[in-house]
């Protein structure tokens, strides 16, 4: 079982590395093209860029909580629906902790700032120098580096979900602190 976890982590890292190498090549081409054009949607007036990052909850803590809930379910202390709700709540709490952890680390990093977050999905919009954005991948909770538009999509989906009451208890279903300059906002 431990082997499978290590293998999964390796494959995730390998996939991220491949995606970054491809993104890096195209980013260099994009940089050259953008030097001759006006400021793009992912770039602010000061030359910094904006991208979305996704974070994941602490997998060890999540697994431990899952085992505790499974034990409660097996002993008949909770129903299946209560167990599912407890697990979703635990997952959301750990995701919120991962977002907070990222914010704290970003705040202590020069050339990197958090612009907004959709905690429900663990997606954060960050701004900074291109090198600082890439360096954010070294933060232990970061799972992916994505285009800024992905954050906007997550924000829209979270706002739609909060209107219908689909968010679980304790889940943040709204975007926190978004100051992007997009026409759709």
UniProtKB/TrEMBL annotation:
Region (Disordered): 56-86, 151-185
Top-level taxon in the UniProt lineage: Archaea
Protein name per the record: Uncharacterized protein
Organism: Halogeometricum salsisoli
Biased composition (Low complexity): 151-161, 169-185
Biased composition (Polar residues): 71-81
């Amino acid at each position: 079982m431990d082997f499978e976890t290590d293998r999964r982590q390796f494959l995730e890292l390998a996939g991220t590395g491949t995606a970054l190498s491809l993104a890096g090549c195209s980013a260099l081409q994009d940089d050259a093209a953008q030097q001759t054009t006006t400021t793009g949607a992912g770039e602010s007036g000061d030359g910094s860029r904006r991208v979305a990052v996704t974070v994941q909850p602490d997998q060890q803590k999540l697994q431990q909580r899952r085992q505790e809930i499974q034990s409660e379910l097996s002993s008949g202390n909770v129903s299946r629906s209560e167990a599912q709700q407890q697990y979703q709540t635990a997952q959301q709490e750990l995701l919120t902790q991962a977002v907070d952890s990222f914010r704290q680390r970003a705040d202590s990093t020069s050339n990197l700032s958090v612009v907004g977050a959709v905690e429900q999905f663990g997606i954060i919009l960050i701004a900074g120098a291109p090198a600082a954005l890439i360096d954010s991948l070294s933060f232990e909770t970061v799972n992916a580096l994505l285009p800024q538009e992905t954050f906007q999509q997550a924000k829209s989906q979270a706002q739609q979900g909060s209107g219908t009451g689909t968010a679980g208890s304790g889940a943040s279903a709204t975007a926190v602190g978004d100051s992007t300059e997009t026409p759709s906002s």
